[in-house]
Every structure is written in C-alpha cells, then in structure tokens.
Design a protein that fits this description.
The protein has six helices and 14 strands. It has helices at about 5-10, 50-60, 65-75, 225-235, 235-245, 260-265, and strands at about 15-25, 30-40, 45-50, 80, 85-90, 105, 110-120, 120-130, 135-145, 150-155, 160-165, 185-190, 195-205, 220. It has two domains: about 5-50 and about 100-270, outer membrane lipoprotein receptor (LolB), chain A (Clam); about 55-100, no CATH class. Strand 9 and strand 10 form a beta hairpin. The strands form two sheets. Strands 9-10-11-12-13-1-2-3-6-7-8-14 form a twelve-stranded mixed sheet. The protein is globular and about 70 Å long. By secondary structure, the chain is an alpha+beta fold.
Length: about 270
Amino acid sequence: MLAVGVSGVMAQAHIKAVYTETSRNLHATDTVKSKEMTLVSGLNRSFYFNEMSQYCDSMDSTPEGKKKLQEVQLAAWMTTSPDGSISIDMRRGNAPRKTVYTYVEKDFANGNVTVYDKWGGEQGVYSEPLHEQEWTITGDSVKTVLGYDCVLAECDYHGRHWRAWFSPEIPVQDGPWKLGGLPGLILSADGGNSFTFEIKGLENYDGSIGSVYNKDSYQKVDRKKALENEEYYANNMESVLRAQGVTLKMPANATPPKFEAHLHSIEPDYK
C-alpha cells in the first residue's frame, strides 16, 4: 500500500512501483525467468528500469566509476591457479553486474515513448507514439492486487493480447514497460506465453526521475528489424560469435535453443 492516501499521491506527483517481470526461458521453454524492474512515474515523464543495471551504467559513465566497478568485479570473479593462469567466473561472488538491458522512457508532455535495449548483441534505441494500446475496459471484472481494487482492461498490441488490471484508486495513467494509458496505474498484466508483469511494491517518491546513461552508445534502430536481429542472433549464436573470433564451447550432445517469436518475444508482430 502507498504510505499516504490518494491525495498525497497527487500532491507529490511521483510514485515508485516495483514489478516482477517474467518471460519464457529460451534454454528451457517449460520454465520462466524473472527480473525485477522499477517504474518511477511523474506528471511529465516516467522511467522503467532495472536498478542494478542503472547502478552499473552510472558507474560506467565516469572514468573513476568504471575503474572502481571493474576492481570490485575482478576481486569477486578472478582466481589465480597455482600455475599462474587466471580465470574469471562471473557467477562467483556478489559483485554488481548488468544483466538487464531494457530501459523505457515515457514522455507524457510530447506523447512519445523511447525504448533502449540490446538486440542481436548490439545496443539500440527507438521511439514511437505513446500509449498506442487501444484498451477495452471490462467494468464487471475486478480483483484485488496489492490491496487495491483493480479493473480489467484488454487490448491487442504488437502481436500479443494483453489483459491488464489497473487501479482507479491510483490516478496515474502509466504501467510497466510500454503499457499505460488507462485511468489508473496498471498493477498486473498478462500477455500470454509467460509474459507477465506483477507489482510487488508501491510508494510515494520525492526523488528525481532518472534517465539512461551513455545515450550516445545506442544506435537508432527500427523496432521490427531489431526484433528480427534478436531472433537470428539467438538461433545462430555460435556462428555469429565465431565470426567475431569468439569460440563457444558446447557439449557434444547439446541441442541449441530455438527462439520462436510467439514464445520468446514480447512483441512477436515482426514475423
């Protein structure tokens, strides 16, 4: 629950919501993977991000921070064998590490949404009109999420049918990822095939709304082309990396994962 009532939300203008985002695991399609994402939303803009990734990018944005982060990571990951050889295992220790590349910036004032992510091994960015979802509100379908009474809305968006539960008690026309535009904050959403967003925390927020670091490192991309590249990269990773001079050791009997748009892409409309 919010620390104060609805009137406090309106006066403060900013909220901070934490969501669990799930999707189907490429390497084990009968399982799902999850990540924690944060939405900070204000009157004019909002920012959707992973807090660990934002921290790592903030450190990488200055020479001093980059050096300090590398020192912490190497101290946790690097081991030296008796023969003097050095190995690095990023699964060791508890060092900060960026594993989520998705950032979404919504500009309510200018009516656009900008997505920063990594597709096909390359960082990219694209913008499109804000809230293109055309929702149908089902007023007689209600459920409680995080203690709030929520109403069901449905839409077809970029190849998925979304069922979203929003709360009119929280007058913020926003939600996780690119979803939004309803008369209340989206607390839960299901796009089928294990693509879900579920709120786990919500509070008033009086800090500034952040932004993406190192924006000049992102190349402008076409959304559908970027999604095509991601599928090709996933299905041909060994040959792509070999062309880049990287050797990927796979067990002799290993079956390479098969990326399928309807199962593994949150926006399968590129097919």
